[in-house]
Amino acid sequence: MADVTVAAYDGTTDNGNVQIMKRNDDMPEVGTGLLGTGAALTAGQTFEIDVQFDDDVMIFCEDTSAGANSITLDAGDYPASPKASQGASTVAMVASDVVSIIPAKGRHLQSDGKITGSMLAAGRIWAMHGPAGFIGKAYKNATTSQDI
Fold first, then answer.
1. Cα(145)–Cα(32) distance, rounded to whole angstroms?
2. In which domain, by residue range, is 109 found?
3. pLDDT tens column, 9-19
4. What is the mean pLDDT of residues 60-79?
5. By the 8 A CB rule, do 146 and 97 touch?
6. Three-class SS of residue 83?
7. Into how many domains does the chain fold?
8. For residue 76, what are the β-bridge partners?
């Protein structure tokens, strides 16, 4: 059982722009979508995202610690996918970094229909379903230079 559960927002209650997972009254605007507070994690906590076997999902991660951080997506164990045996993925983050990850289809999917993982230091996570056919890779910003 994970320490934190992240709900995968499917976009059904908004206007079709980029959608976020969690909403509250003080959400700032980010581009064409709105970004809520996300799911907070403390150092070493695990998380699960219930994608209900539909892992066309985008995961946003923010470092809120005072130093470097990383997010790890666990290796999948759903045997229907040939990518399930490719292992876990870890993305390094510097202080105050924000990364977005589109996991490789089937690589991190668990047999219960979830994606699980952990964060090394404190941070926040958002997740949203996207259109089918996302290509799995980490979108890079100025401080992140690795693919998943």
1. 25
2. 4-14+40-132
3. 555 444 443 43
4. 89
5. no
6. helix
7. 1
8. none
Residue 22 has pLDDT above 90, yes or no: no
Q: Determine contact, residues 45/118, Cβ cutoff 8 Å.
A: yes
CATH of the domain at 91: 2.60.120
Q: Residue 83 corresponds to which tokens in the numbers above?
A: 């990518």
140 domain-assigned: no
Residue 74 banded pLDDT, cuts 50, 70, 90: very high
**What one-character-per-residue DSSP string does 92-126 give?**
EE-TT-EEEEEPPTTTSB-TTSEEEEEESSSEEEE
- Beta strands 46-50 and 4-6 are parallel
Name the token pair of 137.
């890779």
Q: What is the pLDDT of residue 8?
A: 65
Question: Has residue 21 been placed in a domain?
Answer: no
Q: What is the structure's pLDDT at 7?
A: 64
